[in-house]
Design brief:
The chain is built from 10 helices and 10 strands. With 324 residues, it is α/β, with parallel strands linked by helices. α1 links the parallel β1 and β2.
């Protein structure tokens, strides 16, 4: 008996390799996936401007990095006893203006250098709804708890998103001709917008992405949204709020991504590294036993073997643990 829907995911034409550089921008779901890449020691930069949901703000963050923009005092505003940027998540806000600017500009500088040689850029759209600050008529990435009446909620159109990202894709390719862009739509339901409104928003995002993928050879669509909402399709895969995928769902999406997007060499690394990471997490009954000493010696040998096969990946922490 078949109890769930399965569907084929088109394999990536440009596979992800162990030494590749990766860049992530977008919603909280992008951070969930980026965390797994970091676990397996990929060279990543994630959400240089913090978590962002609407395509316009995500494009602004990436354009800032492409231009190596340096923010100044005129780009900030003071509210709720902190300095803030409308284009950044509140994690960058700070009571000290100079520290706020330093945190923002340091991330952009790092990202500019990283993007020049990034192999794969994951862009995750969360919602087609955005907020326009009425005083400046500018779309913002974060409202920073400013009263709601000072903003207008707008639904971005497919045409606006496509036009914006055609320009961004050209700019990315001008900086890095080999970049592979992977679009995803967050499977998180933004019920604060309303259930019907959330579905409308996701439909706009999906239409825009598929037009971009169909007109740009460097772009791929990975169906994280469909995996969670059509293949898993069960509330046991969600957190208690019923809108955020839980760890089981995120790990399932990861498995599908590995199968579709990783080279055989990368899959081999991930499988072997998982065994080592589990060994690091293992807590023996007797740390001073001969058996545990042999266990650590065996895994030290595995670490050194991986280090020799993947010289650009740092296994020093694991080697230090097993050698101690």
């Amino acid at each position: 008996m078949k109890l769930k829907l399965d569907f084929e995911i088109r394999p990536f034409e440009k596979k992800i390799n162990p030494e590749d550089r990766l860049f992530f921008a977008g919603s909280c779901f992008s951070e969930n996936i980026a965390t797994l890449f970091e676990r397996y020691k990929f060279n990543t930069i994630t959400n240089t401007h913090g978590i962002l949901y609407n395509p316009y703000s995500i494009a602004v963050s990436m354009s800032d990095c492409l231009l190596a923009k340096q923010y100044t005092e005129k780009d900030l505003f003071y509210a709720n006893e902190t300095w803030n940027s409308f284009h950044h998540h509140s994690r960058f806000s700070h009571p000290d203006k100079e520290k706020c600017l330093a945190g923002i500009n340091e991330q952009i500088t790092r990202a500019y250098a990283h993007l020049r040689s990034t192999d794969h850029a994951f862009i995750t759209f969360g919602s087609a709804y955005a907020y326009k600050y009425l005083k400046t008529r500018e779309l913002v990435g974060n409202c920073h708890k400013i009263p709601q009446q000072e903003f207008e909620k707008v639904l971005l159109t497919k045409e606006e998103i496509v036009e914006n990202y055609q320009k961004l894709i050209r700019s990315l390719q001008n900086l890095n001709k080999n970049i592979h862009i992977i679009f995803t739509v967050s499977p998180v339901r933004y019920t604060r917008d309303g259930v019907v409104e959330n579905n409308l928003s996701k439909a706009v995002l999906l239409q825009a992405i598929h037009e971009l993928v169909n007109t740009n050879a460097c772009c791929t669509y990975f169906p994280a949204y469909e995996i969670v909402n059509d293949e898993l399709r069960d509330y046991r895969f969600f957190e208690e709020d019923m809108v955020h995928p839980n760890n089981m769902a995120i790990n399932y999406v990861w498995e599908r991504l590995v199968n579709a997007g990783f080279s055989e060499k990368t899959k081999e690394l991930v499988n072997e590294l998982e065994l080592i990471l589990k060994a690091v997490a293992h807590r023996p009954f007797n740390e001073n036993s001969e058996g545990h000493a042999k266990f650590k010696a065996a895994h030290l040998k595995k670490c050194r073997d991986l280090a020799s096969r993947f010289p650009l990946i740092d296994f020093s922490n694991e080697e230090k643990y097993f050698a101690s």
